[in-house]
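Here is one record:
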Amino acid sequence: MLWAADLDGGRIHRDPARAALRYLTIRDDNDARLMVLTEPSVLVQRTTSPEQRRRLVSAVLSPETLTDWGGGVVVENHVNVLRPRQEGPAISAQLLGRLLATTTLDSLTRCISGSVALSAYELEALPFPSLEVLDQLSVLPDDEFEAAVRGLYHLDGSR
């Protein structure tokens, strides 16, 4: 069981405070098919608390993490799961995770809604750069990536 509190600082970890709450009975194949996430994806906290520094809290659920957690996880209802709609997605989970981790996208999220809740609708409303631009940015180191994304949205004072 993966809780929203397990997403922190762009990483997935097992929050010790939730250790006793990680048990869930999967009764049959239908439960498993509907509830168990077995593929890499990007996870986003659906609800944050007012005292959290970021409103957009995300982490990549990598193949390695899935393996470490036994091959699959069940996410609780305070976690949005972003996964590709097709084979060979246009953007990798790692690149999407990097983009969502920027302070720029966090600021944009705050502009869309003043609420601590972040719905799938609001995530879909975020204005993402074009695939061509993202492809160019993908090779940048993190600090340059952050600055380049900030510049795309003219949050660097340019214009």
Q: What stands out?
A: The chain has one domain: 4-152. The two ends are 46 Å apart (CA to CA).
